[in-house]
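User: Just a sanity check before I run the rest of the batch. Below are the structure tokens for the first item. I only need the designed sequence back.
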């Protein structure tokens, strides 16, 4: 049940406690959404633990959380107050004598937070010795430590900046409920009601549903072999949109599997989103493909996703090390085929990779079920060391559709995982064995010693 309201902090001149059932105008969806989610954080222990854990903020069972909306600071600039240029919320987490405080600024629908507004809130947080600013919009980022708004590095020198997408919050609610992650029955009910609101069309919350406006032009340029500049707006926007879609894929797969699905990122890219954007734009201009890898808990391998703009194809794949206890490619392939007995073969292929410059072979799953020897190489006797199951989707002219591309991609990835990925198991070497002969010899040797 909702906790009793505490007194407003001394450094605030105005602000209302966050309410689970806010009394606001029907048009004030932003204010309503912020109030509901902040009140939910106060009310449901596991929800605040889950969300704040993503910011590396630990919430113990004895910690208390205050949540305020429409906050106005003491000694605030009168012009800012008049223009209602104020943050949407404030969180205060108290653990013993320690406090962690964060400003909240949120947008719904297609609204975004501008650089100027965000800079002012960071300055407010710095002035009032707050720890962080958290933004919540429908924009997606790879990690909460990344941010959709580019700011100078010194802007966050003394105040941390984080970002949650509304879809990320919704997914955390879904995972907690799906996995029985909330112990108290009353809090389960509260979380269910919060999720019901977040899933409603009236909440203003959406998922990433289309690529950038330059997408069609970029696809056509690639098809006609026209050059692309890595610093151009069209390339930068395409890579930024792809980064958002990667995150949306993770959230979709998280909801479907009931577990956390994350992006596999290089450490440099995890720490520096601007470097990630720069490197990915550079790689894209050299080879016009969009790629990512999803890490799924307990899956046999990462789920790799590739969108090839030249071929206008989508590929989903998982790569397994071939079993070393089998000598031929055919025998190693049969090990994989046994795992894929229930897979609907349409669109599925298997690739066998061999060491060095030895030939790579590629055949349809349907064909290999009847003739596994077709994956053998005509030019090399070396057995395959890696077997990769691949799902192909040929979009042809539909590939350049901003919305169609995203829709098809978000169908392809779950289909691949359901039909193949979740069935796969990595090969593990068998345990060493003691032969019966060795035991008998050892016993005979011990008896001979005793006789002497």
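Assistant: Here's the designed sequence for the first item:
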């Amino acid at each position: 049940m909702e906790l009793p309201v505490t007194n407003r902090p001394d450094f605030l001149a105005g602000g209302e406690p966050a309410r689970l059932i806010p009394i606001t105008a029907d048009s004030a969806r932003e204010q309503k959404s912020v109030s509901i989610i902040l009140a939910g954080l106060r009310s449901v222990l596991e929800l605040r633990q889950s969300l704040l854990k993503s910011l590396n903020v630990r919430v113990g069972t004895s910690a208390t959380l205050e949540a305020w909306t429409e906050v106005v600071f003491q000694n605030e600039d009168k012009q800012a107050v008049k223009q209602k240029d104020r943050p949407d919320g404030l969180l205060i987490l108290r653990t013993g004598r320690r406090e962690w405080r964060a400003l909240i600024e949120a947008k719904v629908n297609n609204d975004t937070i501008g650089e100027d507004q965000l800079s002012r809130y960071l300055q407010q947080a710095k002035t009032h010795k707050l720890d962080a600013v958290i933004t919540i919009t429908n924009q997606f980022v790879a990690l909460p430590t990344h941010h959709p708004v580019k700011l100078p590095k010194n802007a966050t020198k003394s105040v941390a900046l984080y970002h949650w997408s509304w879809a990320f919050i919704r997914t955390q609610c879904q995972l907690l409920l799906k996995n029985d992650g909330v112990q108290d029955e009353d809090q389960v009910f509260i979380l269910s009601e919060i999720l019901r609101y977040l899933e409603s069309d009236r909440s203003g919350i959406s998922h990433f549903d289309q690529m950038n406006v330059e997408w069609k032009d970029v696809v056509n340029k690639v098809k006609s072999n026209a050059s692309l500049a890595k610093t151009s707006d069209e390339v930068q926007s395409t890579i930024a949109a792809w980064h958002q879609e990667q995150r949306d894929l993770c959230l979709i797969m998280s909801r479907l599997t009931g577990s956390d699905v994350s992006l596999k990122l290089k450490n440099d890219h995890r720490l520096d989103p601007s470097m990630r954007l720069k490197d990915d734009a550079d790689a894209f201009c050299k080879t016009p493909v969009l790629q990512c890898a999803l890490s799924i808990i307990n899956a046999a391998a990462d789920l790799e996703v590739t969108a090839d703009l030249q071929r206008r194809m989508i590929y989903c794949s998982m790569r397994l090390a071939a079993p070393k206890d089998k000598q031929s490619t055919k025998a190693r392939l049969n090990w994989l085929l046994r795992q894929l007995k229930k897979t609907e073969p349409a669109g599925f292929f298997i690739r066998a990779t061999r060491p060095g410059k030895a030939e790579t072979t590629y055949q349809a799953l349907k064909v290999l079920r009847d003739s596994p020897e077709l994956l053998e190489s005509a030019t090399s006797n070396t057995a395959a060391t890696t077997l990769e199951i691949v799902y192909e989707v040929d979009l042809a002219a539909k590939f350049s559709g901003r919305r169609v591309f995203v829709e098809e991609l978000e169908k392809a990835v779950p289909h691949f995982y359901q039909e193949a990925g979740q069935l796969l198991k990595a090969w593990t070497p068998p345990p060493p064995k003691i032969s019966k002969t060795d035991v008998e010899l050892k016993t005979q040797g011990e008896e001979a010693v005793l006789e002497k």
